[in-house]
User: Fold this.
Amino acid sequence: MKVLVVGSGGREHTLCWKLAQSRKLDELYCAPGNAGIAGIAKCVPVSADNISELKALCKIEEIDLVVVGPEAPLVAGIVDRFQAEGLRVFGPLKDAAQLEGSKAFAKKFMAGNNIPTASFGIYQDHDKALSALGNYTFPLVIKASGLAAGKGVIICADRNEAETTLCEMMIDSRFGDAGASVVIEECLEGEEASILAITDGRDYVCLTPSQDHKRLLDGDEGPNTGGMGAYAPAPVITPDLQARIEEDILIPTLTGLEKRGSEYSGCLYIGLMITASGPKVLEYNCRFGDPETQAVLPMLKSDLLDLMVATTDGRLGDHQVEFHDGAAVTVVLASGGYPGSYEKGKPITGLDSVPEGVIVFHAGTAEKDNQIVTSGGRVLGVTAQSESLQNALDLAYSGIDAIEFEGKFFRKDIAQRAIARNG
Ligand code: AMP
Ligand code: GLY
Assistant:
C-alpha cells in the first residue's frame, strides 16, 4: 500500500515509524514531515492545512491510505472532502471532529449523553459571562471554545483573573474567533490520564493508557506546554478504572455520536481527570495525542497499518490487537525559552550515538547545509520501550545525555509519579 501521513511533529514521526514496520507498506509519504521523518518517508513540502494540494498529491501518487495527524485539517473537514473523491482516510468526519473543534459542542454533547465532566456554562456574550462568574467558586477554568493550539485553557485563581481572561478572550479576541464563545467550568482535582481509542464507530481498541506532562518544570511547576514527556501504561488507570471509563465514557460517546448520525472513525483521544468521584472528561481530541503517541505506539505489538485499514473498512469487531509487556517513555528535548520565544537553527549533534534501543522521534527539526538543526520549541522526543518502566527511563535519559544542542532543555522527572505509585 501507498500511505500518506499528514503533519510534521513527533506524533507524525511516530506514526511513520510504526507504519514503516508493516509488511503491507510499499511506499510512505509525509506532508510536510521533518528532518527525522525524511529518513523513513518521502517528505513532500505541502502544509497540513492545504487540503486542495494534499488531495492533488494523493491523486498523483495514487495514495491508498491517508493518515491525518493534526486537528486543524480534521476540524476543517479534510476527511469529508477526501472521501468525496473516493480516497481512504483514517480520521473522523467534520461533524464528529467538533468534539475537539468546539468545546461548547463537546460539553453539550457530554451533558446530553450523561458523560461525566466538570459542571459548566457556555457564553457568547461578555456581560452574561461576567455576571455568571458569581455562580462559580474559585479556582475555575475558562476555555476558548474553538481551536487555540492548546493555549485556550486558563485556570483562574480568583475573580480578578477570571475578568481579565474573559476580556482577553471575548473583547480583545486574543484567540481570534476561537474565543467568541467561552466555556466556564468547575476546576477538577485529581491525576490526569489519556486514553487513545481506535474506533470504527461501533467497535474499538483502546491503546495503552498514558500520561502526559504538561508543565514545563520538574514537579509540575511552571507554565503549560504542548507536553514535556509521556509514558505508558499509566498505573493510575487500573483494570477496574479502564472498564469504568469504557462503560461510562467511551461507549456512551460512540453511541451518542451514532445517534446523531455521525459515527466516529479514527483515533478518539479522551483526556481524563481521575477525581475522587471517578473519571471525568477534561477534553476530547479527534486525533492521536502528542506526545502520548510517542510512548503509546511503541507499546503496540500489532501492525498499525492493518489496524488502520480495519478501522476505515468498519471491521474492527473481528480485529485482534496485541501489546508489548513493560512500559515506554518519551522525554521531550525542548529549545531554551520554550514555551515562550526561543531561537531556531541550532545544530543538533549525537543523534547517531544514542544507545541501542533508544528511538529518537523528531518534533521540530529541519535540515540545513547537510546538518540537522532545531526548528521548533519541542525538538525531539527521546523514547525507549522496555520490560520495566525504570529500564525504559534509564535508556531514554541515556539517549538524552548523548544528544546536544545549544539551549537543550528537558524535564528530569518524567514518569516519577508512576515509579512512586509502583513502589
Ligand atoms: P483541555 O485542552 O481542555 O484538556 O485543557 C488543557 C489542560 O487544562 C488539561 O490537560 C488540564 O490540565 C487543564 N484543565 C482543563 N480543564 C480543567 C478542569 N475542568 N479542571 C482542572 N484542570 C483542567
Ligand atoms: N497531549 C495533549 C494533546 O495532544 O493535545
